[in-house]
Specification:
- This protein is of the alpha/beta class.
- Helices cover 35% and strands 16% of the residues.
- The strands form four sheets. A nine-stranded parallel β-sheet has the order 14-13-12-11-10-9-15-18-19.
- The longest helix has 40 residues, at 141-180.
- It is globular and about 85 Å long.
- It starts with a strand and ends with a helix.
Length: 544
């Protein structure tokens, strides 16, 4: 006899081999639910994979599936239909008891994305395989397709970030240790002295050349210019000196952007991982530090090694310098009206960057008449993606820049969600959508009215009271050096406070225990420990 449920919309009809399920008169499963469920999965089941199962209904066949599932693969069970999702708690349900360390259920897109991100980060999953397990997947086919695309982007972005971490991790940590010894002005004092509610944020996009006079006019009216370090050559050529420079890049090549002049009246706000050459060009009263949470290392934990960052505010990672600068302006300095210039994330060939900036210099150096190259051949070979400009016009854009524009958009909307009075404007309609409001140049002054300075959302670290932040950081570095020496003498154990030593080593021993992995990587761990010990000895001896 049929079992009515939820006002007869959902029907469960027992059959000799299982339960036939229908919703609103539409059959969603066959008479043999287990066999129908299992034959939709690839054979053999892939390893290191996020296996996304859409609309598993009662979970018939889950026991067999989990028995064959590789230990390196995780399951994400998704059902957007509320009535079908609640079948997981039905007495006839075959789902494994939750919580399960490698099996999650989700009833919404946001819940599925959060769960997938956690599984990918914890288990090092490398790919996504989607399975439409039953007829219930047809009810939200387009939403499931979009979710599958979002999950693939999560995996791709995770491994892209992991590759960057392996390539630059040693440089980040080395720069952080070197800059931690430097004296600085806490960002809290900078926020108290820079009492302004409006600012112009300048990037290195080619649109900067078109609005240099606009920036000059606003600076003459008392609006401070906040420049990303990549925009400095163009500003120096135009004779504009910004009030604040924001720098994040850890490579020495970015120090060239500060060469046009000494920027004597400018304040530097730099990530602690920038190359030490950059902050040393500024006096202690002209430089301030922050640090992005670039990895799960002891510097950002309650471990004593976190004292290396004493007095330095820790901010969320934003992916690039533009969203990080906007975050600092709003959260730490209390700015509430921002005009962005040269932050477009869209190349309009043959121009890619403002005049004399690093991208423009690279293009000019690679121009060859003999090979008929205009200097942009590298950009043309980069992956492309369909994008929408701020005017709503479709275009073919750079995939890497599109990801950065999306991060800028997320940062803007997140800040505006917490601060409804925050206004972010832009003047160029040919850039990608970043959450900024497009306005004509003629309406700029009317929109850019002065308002009282607003309090910062967050208080930056202060060094007032007790030992100075520099003294605490120096003491923490000396303690870190002693731990590195001990680790080098006793390689049989791994000090959890020295996890940054392992940052650029393979960290996904999915088929071995941590002890076996440590033995396998013994030589690399010793070499990395010795390298950091020598670097830290040189850093501390230079400041002794």
């Amino acid at each position: 006899m049929a079992t009515p449920d939820n006002e007869k919309r959902l029907r469960l009809d027992p059959t000799p081999s299982g339960v036939a399920i229908s919703l609103g008169g539409r059959r969603l499963s066959g008479r043999d639910g287990t066999a129908s469920f299992l034959r939709r999965f690839p054979t053999p089941l892939p390893e290191q994979t996020l296996l996304v199962v859409f609309s598993p209904l009662l979970g018939e066949g889950m026991t067999e599936l989990l028995g064959d599932l590789p230990s390196t693969t995780a399951l994400l069970l998704v059902d957007f239909e509320e009535d079908l999702f609640h079948l997981g708690s039905h007495p006839l349900s075959k789902f494994p008891p939750l919580p399960c360390h490698r099996c999650l259920r989700a009833s919404s897109r946001d819940e599925a994305i959060r769960g997938a991100r956690r599984l990918v980060e914890e288990r090092g999953l490398r790919r996504v395989t989607a399975v439409h397990a039953t007829g219930g997947a047809r009810l939200h086919a387009s939403a499931y397709a979009r979710l599958e695309e979002n999950l693939r982007e999560i995996v791709q972005r995770f491994w892209s970030n992991r590759g960057t971490q392996i390539r630059l991790g040693r440089r980040w940590v080395s720069n952080l240790l070197a800059n931690a010894c430097l004296e600085q002005t806490p960002l809290q004092k900078v926020a108290q002295s820079c009492s302004f509610s409006r600012a112009v944020l300048l990037g290195a996009g080619c649109d900067l050349d078109n609005h240099l006079e606009t920036a000059r006019s606003l600076q003459g009216r008392g609006v401070p210019l906040i420049a990303l370090d990549t925009a400095l050559p163009a500003l120096a050529e135009a004779g504009l000196e910004p009030e604040v420079i924001v720098a994040m890049d850890s490579q020495l090549a970015n120090a060239k952007d500060l060469l046009p002049w000494r920027w004597d009246r400018t304040t530097l706000i730099a990530d602690l991982t920038v190359h030490p050459t950059i902050p040393r060009r500024f006096l202690p009263e002209q430089r301030s530090f922050f640090v992005s949470r670039f990895g799960k290392v002891s510097f950002f934990s309650p471990d004593p090694a976190s004292q290396v960052l004493a007095g330095i505010p820790v901010v969320s990672p934003r992916g690039s310098v533009a969203p990080a600068a906007l975050d600092i302006l709003v959260r730490l300095l209390g700015v509430r009206t921002v005009l962005t210039i040269g932050i477009d994330f869209h190349y309009r060939l043959p121009r890619t960057h403002a005049h004399l900036t690093a991208g423009d210099r690279r293009m000019r150096s690679e121009m060859t008449r003999l090979l008929r190259r205009d200097g942009n051949h590298e950009y043309l070979l980069r992956p492309r993606r369909d994008v929408l400009l701020r005017t709503g016009q479709p275009a073919r854009g750079d995939a890497i820049l599109a990801d950065q524009a999306l991060q800028m958009h997320h940062t803007t909307t997140e800040l505006q969600r917490f601060l409804p009075d925050l206004r972010v404007f832009c003047l160029n309609g040919e850039g990608l959508e970043t959450g900024a409001t497009l306005i004509p140049t003629g309406d700029l002054l009317s929109r850019f009215q002065e308002s009282p300075p607003a309090p910062a959302m967050e208080q930056a670290g202060s060094e007032t009271g007790g030992p100075s932040g520099q003294a605490l950081r120096r003491e923490a570095l000396e303690s870190l050096l002693a731990r590195l020496r001990l680790q080098e003498e006793h390689p049989g154990f791994i000090d959890s406070g020295l996890d940054f030593v392992l940052l650029d080593l393979p960290q996904w021993p999915l088929l071995t225990t941590r002890t076996e992995w440590a033995l396998l990587q013994r030589e690399r761990i010793l070499r990395s420990t010795r390298d950091y010990r020598r670097r830290l000895e040189r850093i501390l001896s230079a400041f002794s």
